[in-house]
Write a structure and sequence with these properties.
This protein is α+β, with helices and mostly antiparallel strands. It contains five helices and six strands. A four-stranded antiparallel beta sheet has the order 1-2-3-4. Strands 5-6 form a two-stranded antiparallel ribbon.
């Protein structure tokens, strides 16, 4: 027995309809219509593509970690931030666990809709085993940036085809060129 709570099918209408028919032969299914919200991601369509947003999820995270009314900032990390393994006093076990929860929550935001957070989240996640006060300060800065930019969306435009075209450069290395999607 297999139980799947949710399944999202994405593609052209004909392909999606064909897949639904095949799945319906084997499994009991119900079609909930066009996707609008899934795993904390709001999905809106227009003639140019999809807009993905996690504003509601982000607000929940900021509220849970008590950053809803924090002072917003305009960058994910301060340009002069230098994080090192041995910087500042180590956090207590309780605070270190909270740090890990912070990092996991913002990592999900980064992976789903916010590539602008990649460098900053990568920087603070390196210290999850033994975070210090300085690392926590950098993490707080990221949360303040998320508060200021919670309205940002990821826009995925339509494209007719996606091709991987290998091309050799003069240094004999191979570069893969992708059509611009975002």
């Amino acid at each position: 027995m297999v139980y799947v709570d949710d399944l999202v099918l994405i593609g052209d209408l004909e392909g999606v309809q064909s897949m639904k028919k095949k799945l319906n032969i084997r499994f009991e299914m119900s079609d909930l219509g066009p996707l609008s919200y899934f795993l904390g991601v709001a999905v809106n369509r227009d003639e140019n593509g999809l807009h993905l947003s996690q504003e509601r999820y982000t607000d929940e995270i900021l509220r849970r970690f008590q950053f809803s009314s924090s002072h917003p900032c305009s960058t994910p990390l301060s340009p002069d931030t230098k994080l090192r393994k041995e910087s500042g006093a180590l956090l207590s076990q309780h605070d270190a666990n909270l740090y890990g929860s912070f990092v996991g929550s913002i990592m999900y935001i980064m992976l789903a809709t916010r590539p602008d957070l990649s460098y900053a989240v990568g920087a603070v996640s390196q210290f999850s085993r033994a975070p210090s006060v300085d690392h926590l300060s950098a993490l707080h800065h990221i949360l303040r940036y998320i508060r200021a930019s919670a309205h940002l969306q990821l826009h995925l435009t339509r494209c007719s085809a996606f091709e991987v075209i290998p091309k050799a450069s003069s240094s004999t290395s191979t570069q893969l060129h992708y059509p611009r999607i975002l």
